[in-house]
Amino acid sequence: MKRTAQGTRFLAGAALAALSLMYAGCGNPVVWNATRGGGGGGGGGGGGDPAESTLEQMNLEDFGDENAVYTELIVRNNNAVDDQYSWLHAVDVISINGNDKNYVITVEGEVTGIDGFTLPTFVSAFYIKLSIRGAASSALSIAGVGGVPDGGDGSLIMGESTTVILRGPALRGKSGNTRPILHLNGGESRLVSGDISGNGGNSVLGGGVWCNSTFTMDGGTIRDNTAPLAGGVWCSGGAFTMNGGTISGNTAYGVPGDDPNGGGVRITGGGATFIMNGGTIRNNTGTRGGGVVCYNSGPFTMNGGTIKDNTSSGGSNSNGGGVYCNSRFIMNGGTISGNTADLRGGGVYFNSGDFYKYGGTIYGKNEGANSNTAGEGDTKGHAAYNARNNPNRYRDATTGTYLFWDTYDGWNQ
Question: What pTM did the predictor assign?
């Protein structure tokens, strides 16, 4: 079975009916219909079916809905998704069955050659909730549009009003892809565990994840992705919350004009926000902003977690090893350490907006492995550098608890 995102997926009328019959022969989805209060029933095999009990547990764990929920565990030949064709089956089941349903896809082993898309993966299905589950050793590997290596570039694209939860399996990209691995265009998404990695080279919307919606990272890793802007996560007008997990080893190699790029995380657009409550952003590299870039965006609020060992290097404005910001940065907790900038602001570089520091630690020089380093030397802000209005506002030593700057006051202790 072979198709393209613009081809056989856009079926209608009799073709849809025929496809449904074909899938019935391949093994129907296991269906669980909840009654109010969490009781069982439905097409999964009756109230005593172990599959139904497991599905109920999955439903409550991922979707948290005890009332009147319709959930499908998608299988092919009574097995989990374990090859390209069972993945295509799962995608088409969701596309055909339509809106207002919950779905669970369980991945087993390494599933290679799966479709990348340039349009929403589930076509016109809206208000769906999808849980993709699997062991840590399981993976979905994108080959290209149409599921073939030379089929062009694509993403897993979640459309409006889609909730997706990734719990366990890896999502792996491909070298030279011009799109991110996971494209979140509306709805709410959550990374609980699993690995988003290996996307490389030319993605104009970031390497790992692009979102203009709500994206929450509770665990897992986003690693070893490469793009001109935003190697790991690019939040454009959406809301990114990081509670745990690791964003590491990502690279943003820059574009003509040298916009701030962000090896680990980039947030842009007035409505975009980033709240970091925990987790680690480390060993990422950008040519202008190594760990986190907030560029003409809403606020970046750091309540906890660690930004460490990131590098801003190789560009004409390689400032901000840990954080590069021209918006508002509010630091209530957490640690910024071990970051390096070729030029200024080893830990934090700020050239407009406001920076308020009420807690946490930004290390300066002479702190051993924790030291942030500004390549242009002392007075260039090993800990932090403010380029706005008065370029002499800098900190080379570990910063104080109630330190902040704004348009009027500069540094205050």
Answer: 0.85
